[in-house]
Amino acid sequence: MDIKSLKTFVSVVNNKNFSAAARELHTVQPTVSRHISELEAKLGVKLFHRNTHQVELTEAGAIFFPEAFKIIANNKRVIELVNHAGNQKVATLNVGYLATASSFFLPDIIKSFAVSQPETTINLYEMSGKQQYDAITENKVDVIFCREQPLLADPRFSCVEVYSDSLVAVVPRCHPLAEEKEISIYDLRNDKFMMFHQTVWSDVFKHIVQLCKEYGFTPQMTYSPENMRHMATFVSSGLGVSIAPSCIQFVADKHCVCIPIKEMTLTMPLYMYTNKGNESDEVLNFVALCQKNRDHIRAMLS
């Protein structure tokens, strides 16, 4: 039996008249009669008692009526579901991040976002600053967490400061200064330094070297690690000291100690960048969640 015949049957029941049903269905009475006859033939029963003025349901027709109504309603629901599925885009969120600078807070943010938007697929990409710049300008990621990107100081991009990190001395636990609550930059004058190469940390590198010179010494640079995890490992191994953002504490092991430097005023903010031309609902909701949690993130560093 087809849906058209069922709709005709329901219309005849509601109108109690073939002519009225034909008007409601924008057709002619012979078509209505044909649909009912075909339906009765398919079911093998009479559905109506007919007289001159109106029609009445037979016992079989009365039983069939609510079932016909359910079939029509279910058919409509199935069509709507299929159409919705066909038009629905798969929601995704692609996030690029600096590992050490983000690893202490990002997992909790991602977990909360996944709970609130379970239909969204989340992809995470650990990237260098250069890789992040390329990825967001080429729309390969939706959000990046990185240090300041001067090339993204552009109306096409949104920028939110997540937190501002202080620079601290990183020394082995066996170091004579390891128990100090705060030190002077001058206290490191006899140590070997490991810092990111000045091509990677240009402004920070220059600031640290200049500060050391103001206190009468030039730092002894011995090694340029690839990332902060490597830096923490080398310091823990007793191969030297470093000056790094305090977030290094989250990847440093028990053989490594972070100590504030009283003369150090330079800070290293972490920013969240998005491409304004690619701000989907998922991106906007994620940004809002990060902004909501900024105070908590900053408290984790204090």
Automatic annotation (TrEMBL):
GO terms assigned for molecular function: DNA binding; DNA-binding transcription factor activity
GO terms under cellular component: protein-DNA complex
Annotated keywords: DNA-binding, Transcription, Transcription regulation
Any Pfam family: LysR_substrate
Span of domain HTH lysR-type: 1-58
InterPro entries recorded: LysR_HTH_N, LysR_subst-bd, WH-like_DNA-bd_sf, WH_DNA-bd_sf
SUPFAM superfamilies for the chain: Periplasmic binding protein-like II, Winged helix' DNA-binding domain
Annotated protein name in UniProt: LysR family transcriptional regulator
Species in which this protein is naturally found: Vibrio renipiscarius
